[in-house]
Amino acid sequence: xxxxxxxxxxxxxxxxxxFFGKVIRELPVLKGVSLKIEKGKSVGILGDSGSGKTTLAxxxxxxxKPDRGDVLYKGVSIYDMxxxxxxxxxxxxxxxxxxxxxxxNPRMKVIDIVAEGLKINFKLDREIIRKRVLESVRRCGxxxxxxxxxxxxLSGGQRQRVAIARAIVLKSEVIxxxxxxxxxxxxxxxxxxxxxLELQEIFLISYLFISHNPAVVDALCxxxxxxxxxxxxxxxxxxxxxx
Length: 243
Ligand SMILES: Nc1ncnc2c1ncn2[C@@H]1O[C@H](COP(=O)(O)OP(=O)(O)OP(=O)(O)O)[C@@H](O)[C@H]1O
Ligand SMILES: [Mg+2]
Description:
The chain has 8 helices and 10 strands. The protein is of the alpha/beta class.
């Protein structure tokens, strides 16, 4: 079953404006990108810096609109969705970014960071929320005591685990992880890879991993693509270019 899919995505960014503010030059970033993410499977994207990987991730998360092309969640275009269905899409497709320190609010305690999505989307009482946060935190390999700490009181690996717990608590179906391990020590990287795999087994999550590191993608992914100047192409694991 295909959970998330994009079809023939084109995206340019304006790079030059004239005196009147009119765009006179554009930088084409994505040039007809199509991708399918299946239930419980992992897709990896490798590729040079500036090739368009993060732009694609943002479009799949609906943080950025394409110029052309479509994004479908369970077969329905997210641009034509009714409000209720769109909410389901937003809950089920979550992001884990490169540097969790930037994406975690420094003024919020872990419990509130992890609980935020639950509070916004569901009317649950405090005790149930606390229970679900503790459960997710534990699943992500963190001690219960972290819930009363602030992000700056955590290690890099712990912060990354909090970012993952935030997606797990919502029982998300797809996690889009943009360079999820690159800010971490090598030893912590392999712990994170194990955590991603473990959570996939428990919750049947689908992942999109974006990485510069072929070994990370190799360990995690069922299929791998390379982004090259705004175009995606299949990569065989045996491709000598990477090993
Ligand atoms: N908001 C924006 N406005 C203008 N140009 C942008 C914007 N976002 C990205 N770009 C440009 O689009 C291109 C692709 O950027 P993108 O962040 O998708 O690359 P990337 O493959 O994720 O690179 P990296 O591996 O370094 O993270 C770059 O040339 C970048 O400068
Ligand atoms: Mg990027």
